[in-house]
Amino acid sequence: MHVVPKTTTPVPGLRERKKQATRRAIAEAAVRLAAEHGVEHVTVEAISEAAGVSPRTFFNYFPSHDDAFVLVDEEVGERIRESVRRAPADRSPLDVVRGALATELGGFESRQELWALQSRVLQRSPHLIHRGLKAQVAEERALAVAITEWLDATRPDQAGASGTGLFPRLLAAVTQTALRVALEHWCEHPGERVLANTFQEVFAQLAQGLPRPAE
Q1: CA distances from 177 to 47, 69, 86 (A)
Q2: What's the pTM value of the predicted model, to 2 decimals?
Q3: What is the DSSP secondary structure assignment for residue 70, as one 8-state letter?
Q4: 170: which residues sit within 8 A by CB, 6+ positions away?
Q5: CB neighbours of residue 86 within 10 Å
Q6: Each residue's pLDDT tens digit, 82-119
Q7: Taking Cα atoms as reference points, which of 41, 177, 197, 171 lies closest to residue 105?
Q8: Per residue in 25-68, pLDDT tens?
Q9: With CB atoms 3.0 to 4.6 Å apart as the test, which of 42, 113, 168, 195 could cross-link to 147 if both were Cys?
């Protein structure tokens, strides 16, 4: 049995951690202001002031005003993809992605309020939904590439044969959707549900082939 060699993901240096913190601060300020005042009434200057940065710094992290309201944590995405690439060969593809996503649940749990606020912002500003969908598709494609790399590495006799084919793209799309559904359901029931439980319930149903729910 071929097993993918374990590699250590480099720990970000101080400079990189500061950049990540600044990006998160800007995005959080944008979402909080938009939830209170509406996207159309929130300026780049107001977001920058709330985040403690200059408007020039804002545009170092976000190409446009609207991009700041779509929460996409690039560092989380890369950690998930790296976890997929390093997964053992004897696990099922669904378990590989489920495990990679599950390692990030703690970070999601601590941001429940922010996820709920962002959902409210998107519902009030439909033009942002397209931007969010575009970011989601980009994340799915990147995850599909990581799944392909894992498949090739764990089946060396067929390396390169799969390309980024139908299966990796389908698995990436299905699991990203499952995560979104779990997050949305969890945010809609604050204090009632534990995210990890909701997440595992969603993926258990996927693993069973989505049978008819019991009454």
Answers
A1: 30, 20, 23
A2: 0.78
A3: S
A4: none
A5: 18
A6: 999 999 999 999 999 999 999 988 777 777 788 788 88
A7: 197
A8: 999 999 999 999 999 999 999 999 999 999 999 999 999 999 89
A9: 168
Residue type, 181: V
57, with CB counted inside 10 A (0-12, 13-18, 19+), is: middle
Long-range residue pairs from 146-153, CB within 8 A, at least 24 positions apart, any chain: 146/80, 146/81, 146/82, 146/84, 146/85, 147/84, 147/93, 147/96, 147/97, 147/171, 147/172, 149/84, 149/85, 150/4, 150/84, 150/85, 150/87, 150/93, 150/96, 151/93, 153/2, 153/4, 153/85, 153/89
CB of 62 closer than 8 Å to CB of 26:
yes
Alpha-carbon gap, residue 14 to 202, rounded angstroms: 37
- Residue 84, classed as helix, strand or coil, is helix
* Fold exhibited by the domain 13-64: Arc Repressor Mutant, subunit A (1.10.10)
Q: Where are the domains of the chain?
A: 13-64, 70-207
CATH topology for 70-207 is Tetracycline Repressor; domain 2 (1.10.357)
Higher pLDDT among residues 107 and 71, named by residue: 107
Question: Measuring CA to CA, how many Å separate 81 from each of 54, 104, 146, 160?
Answer: 32, 12, 6, 18
What pLDDT is attached to residue 118? 84
Half-sphere exposure at residue 114, Cβ-oriented, CA atoms within 13 angstroms = 18
